[in-house]
Amino acid sequence: MSASDTKRRRVVVALTGASGSAYGIRLLEMLREVPDVETHLIVSRSARQTLQLETDVPIEQLEASADVVHASQDIGAAVSSGSFRVHAMVVAPCSIKTMSNLAWGNTGELIARAADVALKERRRVVLMLRETPLHAGHIESMLRVTQAGAIVFPPVPAFYNRPRTVADIVDHSVMRCLDLIDVECEAAPRWTETSRRLLSSATRPAPQPFTVACP
């Protein structure tokens, strides 16, 4: 490993079985464009099934987009140790099960273990939680995991940027997620840019029918 490699920021990306595999896929794609980031991927067994149901992306292609891949059952993986320095961890998408495991200290598999380690080391952990509606138990787990230091970030779509495709919506949420771990990525319009454009009568676009098409 060269001296320049040791200076790369390690970002752990985990995919769980919740719906929303596109968030994890796009997150890895965006991180590949950041020269000083090294990605470590964990894909749960349930996530493999969801990936197959929701996308045409084979698991081999997903894994090839990461710098390092860790088996979800490998509790001895590097990312399970606090002495292995990482910049941040993002769970995208994050299931209620994974969030609850983390909230209550159930770290019997690698995703929850790696996130728990990141939290105890006071590192940034972002959970792109995918569930609705929520009952009291979910909300209690959200509170507990937030008190432990994690950021619960449901990928709620923005519409001020007038998205036209599912890809537009995914890109905006992933960009906002990357903001939370201090990784710069300009993948979608931000509020200041869009508001200036829309508030200018000279450049205001003509009304268009709103459509959302799958990428």
From TrEMBL:
Residues annotated as domain Flavoprotein: 10-175
UniProtKB keywords: Flavoprotein, FMN, Prenyltransferase, Transferase
Molecular functions (GO terms): carboxy-lyase activity; flavin prenyltransferase activity
Domain of life: Bacteria
Pfam family, one: Flavoprotein
Binding positions (FMN): G17, A18, S19, S44, S95, I96, K97, T98, R130
InterPro entries registered for this protein in UniProt: Flavin_trans-like, Flavoprotein, UbiX-like
Catalytic activity: dimethylallyl phosphate + FMNH2 = prenylated FMNH2 + phosphate
Assigned EC number: 2.5.1.129
Binding-site positions, dimethylallyl phosphate: Y160, R176
Top enzyme class: transferase
Family under the similarity heading: Belongs to the UbiX/PAD1 family.
NCBIfam families documented for this protein: PRK06029.1 (NF004685), ubiX_pad (TIGR00421)
Function in brief: Flavin prenyltransferase that catalyzes the synthesis of the prenylated FMN cofactor (prenyl-FMN) for 4-hydroxy-3-polyprenylbenzoic acid decarboxylase UbiD. The prenyltransferase is metal-independent and links a dimethylallyl moiety from dimethylallyl monophosphate (DMAP) to the flavin N5 and C6 atoms of FMN.
Name of the featured protein: Flavin prenyltransferase UbiX
Originating organism: Verticiella sediminum
